[in-house]
Design goal:
binds magnesium ion, Rossmann fold, 3 domains, alpha/beta, binds guanosine-5'-diphosphate, elongated, Four Helix Bundle (Hemerythrin (Met), subunit A)
């Protein structure tokens, strides 16, 4: 299903995850590739640029959160964006208890209506629903036979060759369904008409004659983003309750059809993925995107990003108030290196200024030393550096293979940074995560 699109999206993600270091350049290339993949899949250009804008925005907002790898975040944002494009939360066919639910299938000829009526009937029957079908297409001679073949006596079928109009047949069928005490009746209708206008007209007549629980629009995935126009046209005559997109197995434009439908706000409940009676699937954007991106580990990435985001928010708030331990101070410096937010902290150090690349490198060598020092401190000392007297300083220096001067410098830098950040946080800049170099 949608192999081309899927392959391209997966290649783009692989390209990102393979990079040793991801800069703006790689991100831009990644986004271009995502755009190409989606446009090739006939997704509306506006939706595509919305998606890439959302990813860019998401990356920018998260720019200085520490600890989450940029690669994970890109995957996460892409995943979320695609789910949004496909309509978000999974929607279900609502069946009202203790009454007959009448669902009228609409759609142009060849879209897959009759086949889909059969599939949905099987689907419901297999879930122990009392379901029947009305053959409401009186125009096509073979329509009743087609349904008979599909349903094979496993689902009751109503047809009436003596009646001339669809409206009459369907009216009779609804009475039949009531008599049988069915919960659900699915109504197949004709798609073949001289003009589209007469099709729409007839649909309007059927709707007012039987007042269905909902209509179900059947759309062929092959038409790609044109699905939007079709959904809007049908919506004018009869409010589209649900949509089923068929032939996703064979179409490269499936993504275009699904996103176009979702963008008009019509809930897609099923997708058709083959000619067989069982080849229908509930449409779940989340699962669909997971499959599209081919990432079985997607859920763990999502969970990781969400958990980290929560922890980081708390940490950022503590940082912002200048409430951080010496260990967190060093930790921030370490992760700042990866995230590029280091200037913020550096500029709060004595003599803080913009540093050259060489200065930065020297600085990070120092941070390595500081890490060793912190590792040699005990919990008590990490919690409160105020207790660091000269004998403790000596012990820590020896333990970490550094000098007493190094230990004193770290403590001094930490205290100054804390004080400065506290001061800043009382001013306009309350959130350290917003501070930029
Ligand atoms: P209708 O004119 O709207 O009633 O369309 P039909 O149900 O007669 O289907 C038209 C053609 O599309 C038939 O050959 C079906 O077998 C085929 N078809 C329907 N749904 C699917 C699907 O999900 N996948 C594939 N590959 N073919 C389908
Ligand atoms: Mg048909």
């Amino acid at each position: 299903m949608l192999e081309n699109i899927s392959e391209r999206l997966q290649n783009a993600l692989r390209f990102i995850t393979r990079q040793a270091y991801v800069s703006d350049k790689e991100v831009a290339e990644y986004l271009r590739e995502i755009q190409r993949a989606l446009i090739m899949g006939d997704v509306d250009v506006r939706l595509v640029s919305q998606l890439t804008e959302d990813i860019k925005k998401g990356l920018k907002e998260a720019g200085e959160e520490y600890g989450i790898s940029l690669k994970d975040r890109i995957t996460y944002l892409t995943y979320q964006g695609l789910i949004r494009i496909l309509g978000g939360e999974k929607k279900e066919l609502r069946i009202i208890p203790n009454q007959l639910n009448v669902f009228i299938f609409m759609g142009i000829q060849g879209s897959g209506k009759t086949t889909t009526v059969g599939k949905v009937a099987y689907y419901l029957k297999n879930r122990n629903r009392k379901v029947g079908v009305i053959a409401g297409d009186v125009f096509r001679p073979g329509a009743v036979d087609q349904l008979k073949q599909l349903l094979k006596d496993e689902v009751p079928l109503y047809s009436d060759a003596s009646k001339k109009t669809s409206v009459e047949v369907i009216r009779g069928g609804v009475e039949w369904a009531r008599r049988l005490g069915l919960e659900i009746v699915l109504v197949d209708t004709a798609g073949r008409h001289r003009t589209e206008e007469t099709l729409m007209e007839e649909m309007a007549q059927i709707i007012s004659a039987v007042n269905p629980t909902a209509t179900i629009l059947v759309v062929d995935a092959m038409i790609g983003q044109q699905a939007r126009v079709q959904a809007e046209a049908f919506n004018k005559v009869a409010k589209v309750g649900y949509v089923i997109v068929t032939k996703l197995d064979g179409s490269a434009k499936g993504g275009g059809a699904l996103s176009a439908i979702a963008s008009v706000g019509a809930p897609i409940i099923f997708i058709g993925v083959g000619e067989g009676i069982e080849e229908i699937e509930e449409f779940d954007p989340v699962k669909f995107v997971s499959r599209l991106l081919g990432k079985p580990d997607l859920e763990s990435i999502i969970a990781r990003v969400q958990k980290m985001s929560r922890e980081e928010k708390i940490r950022a708030q503590r940082m912002a108030r200048g409430r951080f331990t010496i260990e967190e101070f060093v930790q921030q410096l370490e992760s700042a290196r990866k995230m590029g937010g280091v200037q913020t902290i550096l500029s709060s150090l004595p003599g803080g200024r913009r540093l050259s690349k060489k200065d930065m490198e020297e600085f990070f060598i120092k941070v390595k030393k500081w890490r060793a020092i912190v590792n040699s401190m005990n919990t008590e000392e990490r919690e409160d550096v105020g207790i660091m007297d000269s004998s403790r300083v000596r012990r820590v220096a020896r333990g970490s293979g550094t000098s007493e001067k190094d230990v004193r410098e770290l403590i001094k830098q930490y205290l100054v940074a804390k004080k400065t950040i506290k001061k800043i946080s009382k001013g306009a800049l309350r959130d350290i995560s917003r501070l930029r170099p």
